[in-house]
Specification:
single chain; 3-stranded antiparallel beta sheet; about 600 residues; 4-stranded antiparallel beta sheet; alpha+beta
Length: about 600
Amino acid sequence: MTTPDPNARRTAPAGLGRALAALVLAAPLLWTSCGRLSGRVAVARRAEPRVRAVLEENAVARPAPPRAGSVPLLLVADARGSAPATAVAPAKRPPGATPPPEVAVSAAVPFAPGALRDVRLLRLRDGRGAAIPLRAKPLAVWPQGGSIRSALIAFRASLSPGERAIYTLDHGGPALPPEGAPPGSPAQRAGTPPGSPAQRAAPVAPVDPAAVLDEALLPDPDGPIAAVLPPSWYAASEVCGPQLPAMDDRRFPGFESGIERGLDRMTPAYDSYGVSCSGPHRTYYDGPHALYQRFLRNGDAARYRRARAEAVWYRQHELRFSPDRRLAVHVCETEDWTPAKPLSWEVLRRTLGQGMLDDYLLTGDPAAKEAVLATGEALRQNLAALTGGKKEDVLRVTERNMAWAMMTLSSYYALDPRPEVLAALRGLADRTVTWQQQGASGAFEHDLNRADPSECERGPRGGSPFMTALLVDALMDYRALTGDPRVREVVARAAGWLEERALTSDRRAFRYLWGCETDAYDDSGTADLNLLIVPVFGAAYALTRDPRWIAVGDALADVGVKEMRVKQPKQWNQAMRAFGRYLGYRAALAGPPMAAQLSAVR
């Protein structure tokens, strides 16, 4: 299989004015084609013929980071989102026009594990190839290996309203992969495994004083010029989980059009909803995270602005900080709450660790980091009350409670990898593993009546497929940070339970509740939840490389797309928050399973 050179459009020498003008005019087209792969991905020969045919028919590989060491950076002077997303900028200013004043531009640039270890290797060039003074600092590192997960860059640029420009960010290019490195492995993606002799011996580029570490660098994520990267770069970075660019989704085009149509036609509009402590609310299922997933898969300024606005709105309206701002809880928690009192279930599901982490890694806004650390610390201090209270282990009442807690602590550990944070996070993983092992089904069994008597009058040993999907999503975040090998077995058992015991008789959907003795829930009226649940099969495939999980997931996803309901923020977030990850999992059809990839890094 051959792939087009992702850097081919930017290797021409400076001074080709007409060519550059055409390039800028074609910027929107470039952003929908950058990183596209030609041909099909090879599938394991051991796959059953029927399953292999399903995979080969619609396979698209998730892009790998370009080894040439550079990425295009699209600048859009959209006046904070006022310009239409499809607007095409003039190639050049009218003759004699006075250039607008320069303004500060900042962007958070994510990197795949092992791709960048020193921000001093970053360089920026404008469309003519001229060097642009650049300040940079790391925002977060990958706990395994210590390479940079996201870096903040800042510079100055001059663009007229509605104008676009393409700059190039050079990042010092990693060494070539070792001979025979498997496709998709960390060694193939990043050159050499972090810490290997080859990497330590790799030459270091000269340091430019204009690109030194700058701890005083202030981000400007809401400035008049937005700077975004191609969706193929975001997908390859895995900064917010596995992704597949929307333009490469040949298998589920109905999802791509339906999710956009639902957001555009929502009545009342998504952003007209306010804070609710009892009924539907706009941040249910983590609205900022869902909107950032949408942005990452498209890479345009308008979607960036929309996700950013939701993250800021959440912090301004739904978080309450302690006087010293070290702790934060949702405003629906009682005013007299202290870490000695268990957080309420309603507050656990409104603590949006993933969305706040996305906002920080993709903008560098210190307010997002503050929210992640404060909500994470509040939960860490509250764990004794949540898990060892006088009445019950609150986190094992429903899978969802454990899921939100694990997401919160995973986000906390991603930005503050202290031993005590890791210990708290591993403690949740330990409890989750034990929880599943105490039952024989593969579900995380609990009393269904205890969680919601109105939905099940009797069900002492049951489970919730959609809540289980949230917990698996949290486990995959945890695994990406720690490499815990136990996650593979937990996810595979959960996937087996979902396929073998939790499907409705017509096999078109999942039982809303499994194990309820007073209601079998054997109807497919909740098939819209399929899009939330099938990522479990994607995760199982990524960890085991058993292709049957994709066949099962695709069949249920087809029904989910057909029955998709996106008329309110809750349902829209539900559909968007994880289905992009499923597409990212299924796109990695070549290379060893994730467990083997982690072993290669160690």
